[in-house]
């Protein structure tokens, strides 16, 4: 039983070590890249390099950055495999997708 717990803890620690950070830049009223492919457990960081405030808001509501001011960032870790469409609430034509697949 102890071995089982030890292996489980080791697996969780390794997953954190190998979790990647993906950067989405917000520039010229676009999310770049528009589609980001990640593994479950990875983190996505949105950085606003635009002159206007923006948000990164999941269409289905699973994450919401709130206002990201110029020069600021927002990060979210995606724990499950899913394809999530998101948008900017201020500029609804700004669309992006996070594809988390193992
Ligand atoms: Cu916007």
Question: Could you explain the architecture of this structure?
Answer:
GO terms for molecular function: copper ion binding; electron transfer activity. This is Blue (type 1) copper domain-containing protein. InterPro entries: Amicyanin, BlueCu_1, Cupredoxin, ET_Amicyanin. There is one protein chain. With 102 residues, the protein is an alpha/beta fold. The protein has a single domain (19-100), classed as Immunoglobulin-like (Sandwich), CATH 2.60.40.420. It contains 1 helix and 8 strands. It has one helix at residues 2-18; strands spanning 21-27, 30-32, 35-38, 43-48, 57-58, 73-77, 82-87, 95-100. Strands 2-1-4-6 form a 4-stranded mixed sheet, with no helix packed on it. It has a 4-stranded mixed sheet with strand order 3-8-7-5, with no helix packed on it. Strand 7 and strand 8 (95-100) form a beta hairpin. It is elongated. The chain starts with a helix and ends with a strand. The mean pLDDT is 91. The structure holds copper (II) ion. Copper (II) ion binds next to loops.
Topology:
Elements: H1 2-18, E1 21-27, E2 30-32, E3 35-38, E4 43-48, E5 57-58, E6 73-77, E7 82-87, E8 95-100
Parallel strand pairs: 1-4, 3-8
Antiparallel strand pairs: 1-2, 4-6, 5-7, 7-8
The chain binds copper (II) ion.
Copper (II) ion binds at residues 54, 88, 90-91, 94.
Provide mean pLDDT, rounded. Answer: 91
Helix content: 10-25%
Small molecules held by this entry:
copper (II) ion
Order of helices and strands: HEEEEEEEE
At CATH level 2, the architecture is Sandwich
The figure for the number of domains is 1
CATH class category: Mainly Beta
CATH homologous superfamily caption: Cupredoxins -  blue copper proteins
- Structural class per helix/strand content? alpha/beta
> Which percent range describes the beta-strand content?
35-45%
Uncertain stretches:
none
Instruction: Give the beta-strand count.
Output: 8
Here the CATH topology equals: Immunoglobulin-like
Keywords: Copper, Metal-binding, Signal
Signal peptide: 1-19
Domain Blue (type 1) copper: 24-99
InterPro entries: Amicyanin, BlueCu_1, Cupredoxin, ET_Amicyanin
